[in-house]
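Re: weekly structure request thread

Next one in the queue (419 aa):
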Amino acid sequence: MGGYECQCPEGLELSWDKKTCIEVVSCADANGGCEDICEETNPGVRCDCREDYFLAEDGRSCQVRPPCYQNGGCEQYCTAVDGRSECSCRSRSVLGADMKSCHSSFCYASYDYCEHFCDLPRRLCGCKEGFAPVRSGYLCGDIDECAFPHLSGCSHSCQNTEGSYMCTCPEGMWIGSDDKTCRENSPGCGGSIFSDSDGGTLPAITGPYPVQCVWNLTAPQGQLATFRMWYLNVGVAYTCDDWGLEVWEPSAPNYTLVATQCHGVYEKYYISRGNQLLVKIHTQRDLSLSYSLFYYSTESNVFGTSECQQSISSGSNFTSPNFPAAYSPNSQCSIYISGRYRYLWLKFFYFNLEWSPDCSRDYVIVRDTHSNYNVYNQPLARLCGNQVPEPIYSSTGRFSLVFYSDSSVQTGGFYATTS
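Done, posted below.
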Protein backbone atom coordinates (compact mmCIF):
# COMPACT_ATOMS: atom_id res chain seq x y z
CA MET A 1 0.00 0.00 0.00
CA GLY A 2 1.21 3.44 -0.88
CA GLY A 3 4.08 1.96 -2.97
CA TYR A 4 4.93 1.69 -6.66
CA GLU A 5 6.35 -0.73 -9.19
CA CYS A 6 8.34 0.18 -12.29
CA GLN A 7 7.47 -1.45 -15.59
CA CYS A 8 9.23 -1.58 -18.94
CA PRO A 9 7.92 -1.56 -22.51
CA GLU A 10 8.11 -4.67 -24.68
CA GLY A 11 11.73 -5.73 -25.51
CA LEU A 12 13.12 -4.32 -22.29
CA GLU A 13 13.22 -5.60 -18.71
CA LEU A 14 14.05 -4.26 -15.29
CA SER A 15 17.68 -4.42 -14.23
CA TRP A 16 18.85 -5.46 -10.77
CA ASP A 17 17.94 -2.02 -9.27
CA LYS A 18 14.27 -2.61 -10.22
CA LYS A 19 14.16 0.87 -11.69
CA THR A 20 16.23 0.88 -14.87
CA CYS A 21 14.97 -0.72 -18.07
CA ILE A 22 17.63 -2.59 -20.03
CA GLU A 23 17.64 -4.50 -23.27
CA VAL A 24 17.07 -8.24 -22.95
CA VAL A 25 20.41 -9.91 -23.84
CA SER A 26 21.33 -13.61 -24.04
CA CYS A 27 24.73 -15.34 -24.31
CA ALA A 28 23.25 -17.16 -27.28
CA ASP A 29 22.95 -13.81 -29.08
CA ALA A 30 26.46 -12.77 -30.30
CA ASN A 31 28.00 -14.13 -27.04
CA GLY A 32 25.99 -11.49 -25.15
CA GLY A 33 28.34 -8.80 -26.49
CA CYS A 34 31.25 -10.27 -24.43
CA GLU A 35 34.70 -10.56 -25.99
CA ASP A 36 35.52 -13.76 -24.14
CA ILE A 37 33.39 -15.46 -21.45
CA CYS A 38 29.63 -14.88 -21.21
CA GLU A 39 27.60 -16.01 -18.17
CA GLU A 40 23.78 -15.90 -18.00
CA THR A 41 22.40 -13.88 -15.06
CA ASN A 42 18.91 -12.87 -14.01
CA PRO A 43 18.42 -10.56 -15.68
CA GLY A 44 20.91 -10.17 -18.55
CA VAL A 45 24.45 -11.48 -18.84
CA ARG A 46 27.84 -10.97 -17.18
CA CYS A 47 31.13 -10.89 -19.10
CA ASP A 48 34.41 -12.36 -17.83
CA CYS A 49 37.91 -13.11 -19.10
CA ARG A 50 40.31 -16.05 -19.10
CA GLU A 51 43.34 -16.31 -16.82
CA ASP A 52 46.04 -13.71 -17.51
CA TYR A 53 43.36 -11.26 -18.80
CA PHE A 54 41.08 -8.82 -16.97
CA LEU A 55 37.78 -7.13 -17.83
CA ALA A 56 38.07 -3.60 -19.25
CA GLU A 57 36.02 -0.65 -18.00
CA ASP A 58 33.37 -1.21 -20.68
CA GLY A 59 32.47 -4.45 -18.94
CA ARG A 60 32.73 -6.45 -22.19
CA SER A 61 36.26 -6.44 -23.66
CA CYS A 62 39.36 -8.10 -22.18
CA GLN A 63 42.88 -6.76 -21.70
CA VAL A 64 46.14 -8.58 -20.98
CA ARG A 65 46.78 -8.80 -17.25
CA PRO A 66 50.22 -7.21 -16.51
CA PRO A 67 52.57 -8.86 -13.98
CA CYS A 68 51.61 -8.06 -10.39
CA TYR A 69 48.11 -6.88 -11.44
CA GLN A 70 46.15 -6.63 -8.17
CA ASN A 71 49.48 -7.51 -6.46
CA GLY A 72 49.65 -10.78 -8.43
CA GLY A 73 47.56 -12.48 -5.77
CA CYS A 74 50.52 -12.17 -3.37
CA GLU A 75 49.84 -11.56 0.29
CA GLN A 76 52.79 -9.20 0.72
CA TYR A 77 55.24 -8.38 -2.08
CA CYS A 78 54.97 -8.99 -5.82
CA THR A 79 57.85 -8.63 -8.28
CA ALA A 80 57.59 -8.82 -12.07
CA VAL A 81 60.12 -11.43 -13.31
CA ASP A 82 60.32 -12.28 -17.02
CA GLY A 83 56.72 -11.23 -17.61
CA ARG A 84 55.28 -13.17 -14.65
CA SER A 85 54.43 -12.46 -11.04
CA GLU A 86 56.73 -13.69 -8.25
CA CYS A 87 55.66 -13.38 -4.61
CA SER A 88 57.95 -12.72 -1.64
CA CYS A 89 57.58 -11.94 2.05
CA ARG A 90 58.87 -9.51 4.60
CA SER A 91 61.86 -10.27 6.81
CA ARG A 92 61.29 -13.11 9.32
CA SER A 93 58.43 -14.49 7.25
CA VAL A 94 58.44 -17.36 4.76
CA LEU A 95 56.45 -18.11 1.61
CA GLY A 96 53.68 -20.70 2.01
CA ALA A 97 53.18 -23.83 -0.07
CA ASP A 98 50.81 -21.95 -2.40
CA MET A 99 53.73 -19.60 -3.25
CA LYS A 100 51.48 -16.61 -2.50
CA SER A 101 50.70 -16.49 1.23
CA CYS A 102 53.25 -15.59 3.93
CA HIS A 103 53.73 -17.18 7.33
CA SER A 104 55.56 -15.82 10.32
CA SER A 105 58.43 -18.22 11.07
CA PHE A 106 59.12 -18.81 14.73
CA CYS A 107 62.44 -20.30 13.60
CA TYR A 108 63.58 -16.98 12.14
CA ALA A 109 61.68 -14.67 14.47
CA SER A 110 63.19 -16.17 17.65
CA TYR A 111 66.72 -17.06 16.57
CA ASP A 112 69.29 -15.96 14.06
CA TYR A 113 69.36 -19.44 12.48
CA CYS A 114 68.53 -23.11 12.92
CA GLU A 115 71.58 -25.39 12.91
CA HIS A 116 69.88 -28.14 10.84
CA PHE A 117 66.49 -27.02 9.49
CA CYS A 118 63.29 -25.13 10.28
CA ASP A 119 60.15 -27.21 10.90
CA LEU A 120 57.64 -24.76 9.40
CA PRO A 121 54.37 -26.53 10.34
CA ARG A 122 55.47 -26.46 13.99
CA ARG A 123 57.44 -23.22 13.57
CA LEU A 124 60.33 -24.73 15.51
CA CYS A 125 63.93 -25.63 14.70
CA GLY A 126 64.31 -29.30 13.83
CA CYS A 127 67.23 -31.75 13.91
CA LYS A 128 68.34 -34.59 11.63
CA GLU A 129 67.88 -38.22 12.64
CA GLY A 130 70.26 -39.15 15.43
CA PHE A 131 70.29 -35.60 16.84
CA ALA A 132 68.09 -33.69 19.33
CA PRO A 133 67.61 -29.95 20.06
CA VAL A 134 69.89 -28.43 22.69
CA ARG A 135 70.50 -24.93 24.09
CA SER A 136 67.09 -23.29 23.69
CA GLY A 137 66.15 -25.40 20.72
CA TYR A 138 68.08 -23.92 17.78
CA LEU A 139 71.26 -26.02 18.05
CA CYS A 140 71.40 -29.81 17.64
CA GLY A 141 73.35 -32.33 19.69
CA ASP A 142 74.18 -35.96 19.04
CA ILE A 143 71.94 -38.57 20.71
CA ASP A 144 74.05 -41.19 22.50
CA GLU A 145 72.04 -44.29 21.56
CA CYS A 146 74.55 -46.43 23.44
CA ALA A 147 73.37 -44.87 26.71
CA PHE A 148 69.89 -46.26 26.04
CA PRO A 149 69.99 -50.02 25.30
CA HIS A 150 66.41 -49.97 24.01
CA LEU A 151 67.56 -47.60 21.25
CA SER A 152 70.69 -49.46 20.16
CA GLY A 153 69.59 -53.08 20.66
CA CYS A 154 73.25 -54.24 20.68
CA SER A 155 73.74 -57.70 22.15
CA HIS A 156 77.18 -56.87 23.60
CA SER A 157 78.88 -53.48 23.29
CA CYS A 158 77.98 -50.25 21.54
CA GLN A 159 80.10 -47.50 20.01
CA ASN A 160 78.45 -44.10 19.63
CA THR A 161 79.11 -42.15 16.42
CA GLU A 162 78.11 -38.70 15.21
CA GLY A 163 74.38 -38.98 14.48
CA SER A 164 74.29 -42.77 14.86
CA TYR A 165 75.95 -45.75 16.58
CA MET A 166 77.63 -49.08 15.83
CA CYS A 167 77.28 -52.40 17.65
CA THR A 168 80.65 -54.06 18.37
CA CYS A 169 81.71 -57.50 19.52
CA PRO A 170 84.44 -58.84 21.81
CA GLU A 171 87.44 -60.66 20.36
CA GLY A 172 86.49 -64.06 18.99
CA MET A 173 83.01 -62.92 17.94
CA TRP A 174 81.62 -61.14 14.90
CA ILE A 175 78.55 -59.07 14.17
CA GLY A 176 75.57 -60.89 12.62
CA SER A 177 73.47 -59.91 9.62
CA ASP A 178 71.15 -57.81 11.84
CA ASP A 179 74.14 -55.54 12.70
CA LYS A 180 73.24 -55.95 16.39
CA THR A 181 73.85 -59.54 17.50
CA CYS A 182 77.35 -60.96 18.07
CA ARG A 183 78.12 -64.48 16.81
CA GLU A 184 80.93 -66.72 17.95
CA ASN A 185 83.90 -67.70 15.80
CA SER A 186 84.69 -71.38 15.45
CA PRO A 187 87.47 -72.48 17.86
CA GLY A 188 90.99 -71.66 16.72
CA CYS A 189 90.20 -69.16 13.95
CA GLY A 190 89.35 -65.51 13.49
CA GLY A 191 90.06 -62.60 15.82
CA SER A 192 91.52 -59.11 15.71
CA ILE A 193 94.71 -58.46 13.72
CA PHE A 194 96.72 -55.24 13.77
CA SER A 195 97.64 -54.80 10.11
CA ASP A 196 100.89 -52.82 9.81
CA SER A 197 102.98 -52.23 6.69
CA ASP A 198 104.76 -55.60 7.08
CA GLY A 199 101.45 -57.43 6.99
CA GLY A 200 100.96 -61.15 7.10
CA THR A 201 98.80 -64.02 5.85
CA LEU A 202 95.54 -65.41 7.17
CA PRO A 203 95.97 -68.92 8.59
CA ALA A 204 94.52 -72.04 7.00
CA ILE A 205 91.10 -73.23 8.14
CA THR A 206 90.83 -76.57 9.92
CA GLY A 207 87.81 -78.36 11.37
CA PRO A 208 85.70 -79.32 13.10
CA TYR A 209 83.12 -78.32 10.53
CA PRO A 210 81.02 -76.28 9.88
CA VAL A 211 83.47 -73.41 10.39
CA GLN A 212 82.86 -69.65 10.66
CA CYS A 213 85.92 -67.42 10.94
CA VAL A 214 85.95 -63.63 11.10
CA TRP A 215 89.14 -61.55 11.17
CA ASN A 216 89.00 -57.85 12.03
CA LEU A 217 91.92 -56.17 10.21
CA THR A 218 92.90 -52.80 11.69
CA ALA A 219 95.56 -50.51 10.18
CA PRO A 220 97.26 -47.65 12.07
CA GLN A 221 95.33 -44.38 12.13
CA GLY A 222 95.80 -42.44 8.89
CA GLN A 223 96.47 -45.61 6.88
CA LEU A 224 94.21 -47.97 4.94
CA ALA A 225 93.60 -51.64 5.75
CA THR A 226 94.36 -53.72 2.66
CA PHE A 227 93.28 -57.30 1.93
CA ARG A 228 94.74 -59.13 -1.06
CA MET A 229 93.68 -62.49 -2.46
CA TRP A 230 96.77 -63.76 -4.26
CA TYR A 231 95.04 -67.00 -5.22
CA LEU A 232 92.02 -68.94 -4.01
CA ASN A 233 91.35 -72.48 -5.27
CA VAL A 234 88.24 -74.54 -4.61
CA GLY A 235 86.85 -77.63 -6.32
CA VAL A 236 84.45 -76.96 -9.19
CA ALA A 237 81.86 -79.30 -7.68
CA TYR A 238 81.32 -76.99 -4.73
CA THR A 239 78.70 -74.24 -4.72
CA CYS A 240 78.20 -70.98 -2.89
CA ASP A 241 75.99 -72.85 -0.41
CA ASP A 242 79.02 -74.92 0.64
CA TRP A 243 81.34 -72.04 1.46
CA GLY A 244 81.99 -68.31 0.96
CA LEU A 245 84.37 -65.45 1.66
CA GLU A 246 83.05 -61.97 2.46
CA VAL A 247 84.80 -58.63 2.92
CA TRP A 248 82.99 -56.04 5.07
CA GLU A 249 83.79 -52.46 6.04
CA PRO A 250 82.53 -50.72 9.20
CA SER A 251 80.30 -47.80 8.22
CA ALA A 252 77.91 -46.45 10.86
CA PRO A 253 75.26 -47.42 11.58
CA ASN A 254 75.89 -50.72 9.73
CA TYR A 255 78.66 -52.78 8.23
CA THR A 256 78.89 -52.46 4.44
CA LEU A 257 79.44 -55.61 2.37
CA VAL A 258 82.35 -54.81 0.02
CA ALA A 259 82.73 -58.13 -1.80
CA THR A 260 81.70 -61.79 -1.80
CA GLN A 261 83.63 -64.70 -3.29
CA CYS A 262 82.68 -68.38 -3.50
CA HIS A 263 84.66 -69.50 -6.56
CA GLY A 264 88.32 -69.64 -7.45
CA VAL A 265 89.99 -66.28 -7.93
CA TYR A 266 93.40 -64.91 -8.89
CA GLU A 267 94.84 -61.57 -7.76
CA LYS A 268 92.20 -59.27 -6.20
CA TYR A 269 92.64 -56.33 -3.84
CA TYR A 270 90.28 -54.66 -1.36
CA ILE A 271 91.21 -51.42 0.38
CA SER A 272 89.28 -49.77 3.20
CA ARG A 273 87.99 -46.22 3.14
CA GLY A 274 88.86 -45.98 6.82
CA ASN A 275 91.42 -48.10 8.64
CA GLN A 276 89.40 -51.31 9.15
CA LEU A 277 88.24 -54.31 7.13
CA LEU A 278 86.40 -57.40 8.31
CA VAL A 279 87.07 -60.70 6.48
CA LYS A 280 84.68 -63.60 7.03
CA ILE A 281 85.07 -67.18 5.76
CA HIS A 282 82.45 -69.86 6.33
CA THR A 283 82.40 -73.44 5.09
CA GLN A 284 79.97 -76.25 5.80
CA ARG A 285 82.49 -79.07 5.38
CA ASP A 286 86.11 -79.86 4.55
CA LEU A 287 86.59 -78.57 1.01
CA SER A 288 90.39 -78.72 1.04
CA LEU A 289 90.50 -75.00 0.34
CA SER A 290 93.81 -73.75 -1.00
CA TYR A 291 94.44 -70.04 -0.68
CA SER A 292 96.98 -67.31 -0.11
CA LEU A 293 95.34 -64.34 1.59
CA PHE A 294 97.48 -61.36 2.58
CA TYR A 295 96.75 -58.38 4.79
CA TYR A 296 98.78 -55.20 5.30
CA SER A 297 98.37 -51.43 5.60
CA THR A 298 98.83 -48.84 2.86
CA GLU A 299 99.61 -45.15 3.13
CA SER A 300 96.43 -43.21 2.35
CA ASN A 301 98.30 -40.85 -0.01
CA VAL A 302 99.33 -43.82 -2.19
CA PHE A 303 95.88 -45.01 -3.10
CA GLY A 304 93.47 -42.40 -1.67
CA THR A 305 90.03 -43.56 -0.68
CA SER A 306 89.07 -46.10 -3.32
CA GLU A 307 85.54 -44.99 -4.13
CA CYS A 308 85.81 -46.63 -7.55
CA GLN A 309 88.31 -49.42 -6.87
CA GLN A 310 88.83 -52.10 -9.54
CA SER A 311 90.95 -55.23 -9.76
CA ILE A 312 91.39 -56.48 -13.33
CA SER A 313 93.59 -58.88 -15.27
CA SER A 314 95.53 -58.44 -18.51
CA GLY A 315 93.43 -58.19 -21.67
CA SER A 316 90.79 -56.06 -19.90
CA ASN A 317 89.56 -52.61 -20.90
CA PHE A 318 88.83 -49.97 -18.24
CA THR A 319 87.75 -46.33 -18.07
CA SER A 320 87.50 -43.35 -15.76
CA PRO A 321 84.23 -43.03 -13.78
CA ASN A 322 81.16 -42.07 -15.88
CA PHE A 323 83.06 -42.43 -19.18
CA PRO A 324 82.30 -41.24 -21.87
CA ALA A 325 80.62 -38.51 -19.79
CA ALA A 326 82.76 -36.23 -17.64
CA TYR A 327 84.20 -37.77 -14.49
CA SER A 328 82.99 -36.62 -11.07
CA PRO A 329 84.77 -33.96 -9.01
CA ASN A 330 86.95 -35.07 -6.09
CA SER A 331 87.31 -38.64 -7.39
CA GLN A 332 89.93 -40.97 -5.92
CA CYS A 333 90.12 -44.30 -7.74
CA SER A 334 92.49 -47.26 -7.47
CA ILE A 335 92.87 -49.76 -10.31
CA TYR A 336 95.02 -52.88 -9.96
CA ILE A 337 96.13 -54.71 -13.10
CA SER A 338 97.85 -58.11 -13.07
CA GLY A 339 99.17 -60.33 -15.86
CA ARG A 340 100.00 -64.01 -15.89
CA TYR A 341 103.54 -63.33 -17.13
CA ARG A 342 106.35 -61.05 -16.05
CA TYR A 343 105.53 -58.35 -18.57
CA LEU A 344 102.49 -56.17 -19.17
CA TRP A 345 101.59 -53.28 -21.46
CA LEU A 346 99.21 -50.42 -20.64
CA LYS A 347 97.76 -48.57 -23.64
CA PHE A 348 95.39 -45.56 -23.67
CA PHE A 349 92.90 -45.15 -26.53
CA TYR A 350 91.51 -41.84 -25.22
CA PHE A 351 92.92 -39.43 -22.62
CA ASN A 352 91.58 -36.02 -21.54
CA LEU A 353 92.19 -34.73 -17.99
CA GLU A 354 92.43 -31.16 -16.73
CA TRP A 355 95.95 -29.90 -17.53
CA SER A 356 98.31 -28.23 -15.07
CA PRO A 357 102.10 -27.71 -15.40
CA ASP A 358 102.93 -30.23 -12.65
CA CYS A 359 99.84 -32.46 -13.13
CA SER A 360 98.65 -31.58 -9.62
CA ARG A 361 94.95 -31.01 -10.33
CA ASP A 362 93.49 -33.98 -12.21
CA TYR A 363 95.97 -36.75 -12.95
CA VAL A 364 96.75 -40.47 -13.28
CA ILE A 365 99.71 -42.08 -11.52
CA VAL A 366 100.96 -45.40 -12.94
CA ARG A 367 103.22 -47.57 -10.76
CA ASP A 368 105.09 -50.77 -11.47
CA THR A 369 104.35 -53.21 -8.60
CA HIS A 370 107.04 -55.46 -7.14
CA SER A 371 106.52 -59.18 -6.76
CA ASN A 372 106.54 -58.47 -3.03
CA TYR A 373 102.86 -57.77 -2.63
CA ASN A 374 103.07 -54.60 -0.53
CA VAL A 375 106.01 -52.77 -2.14
CA TYR A 376 105.57 -50.32 -5.02
CA ASN A 377 108.14 -48.68 -7.27
CA GLN A 378 108.34 -44.97 -7.89
CA PRO A 379 105.73 -43.84 -10.46
CA LEU A 380 106.39 -44.85 -14.05
CA ALA A 381 104.26 -41.91 -15.20
CA ARG A 382 102.21 -39.00 -13.90
CA LEU A 383 99.72 -38.06 -16.61
CA CYS A 384 97.36 -35.14 -17.31
CA GLY A 385 96.22 -33.01 -20.27
CA ASN A 386 94.61 -34.17 -23.51
CA GLN A 387 97.47 -35.92 -25.32
CA VAL A 388 97.15 -39.71 -25.53
CA PRO A 389 100.22 -41.12 -23.67
CA GLU A 390 102.66 -43.58 -25.22
CA PRO A 391 102.15 -47.24 -24.17
CA ILE A 392 103.63 -48.02 -20.73
CA TYR A 393 105.54 -51.24 -19.99
CA SER A 394 105.70 -53.16 -16.69
CA SER A 395 108.64 -55.52 -16.08
CA THR A 396 106.88 -57.20 -13.15
CA GLY A 397 103.57 -58.00 -14.82
CA ARG A 398 101.64 -55.79 -12.35
CA PHE A 399 100.46 -52.19 -12.53
CA SER A 400 98.79 -50.03 -9.91
CA LEU A 401 96.98 -47.04 -11.39
CA VAL A 402 95.54 -44.21 -9.29
CA PHE A 403 93.21 -41.54 -10.68
CA TYR A 404 92.58 -38.24 -8.85
CA SER A 405 90.36 -35.28 -9.70
CA ASP A 406 89.84 -32.00 -7.85
CA SER A 407 86.71 -29.84 -7.75
CA SER A 408 87.60 -27.27 -10.44
CA VAL A 409 87.26 -28.76 -13.96
CA GLN A 410 85.92 -32.13 -15.13
CA THR A 411 86.60 -33.41 -18.66
CA GLY A 412 86.16 -36.64 -20.62
CA GLY A 413 88.55 -38.87 -18.64
CA PHE A 414 90.29 -41.90 -20.16
CA TYR A 415 89.76 -45.25 -21.88
CA ALA A 416 92.55 -47.84 -21.73
CA THR A 417 93.42 -51.52 -22.14
CA THR A 418 96.10 -53.94 -20.95
CA SER A 419 97.90 -56.74 -22.77
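The first strand starts at residue 12 and ends at 14. The radius of gyration is 37 Å.
Next request, please.
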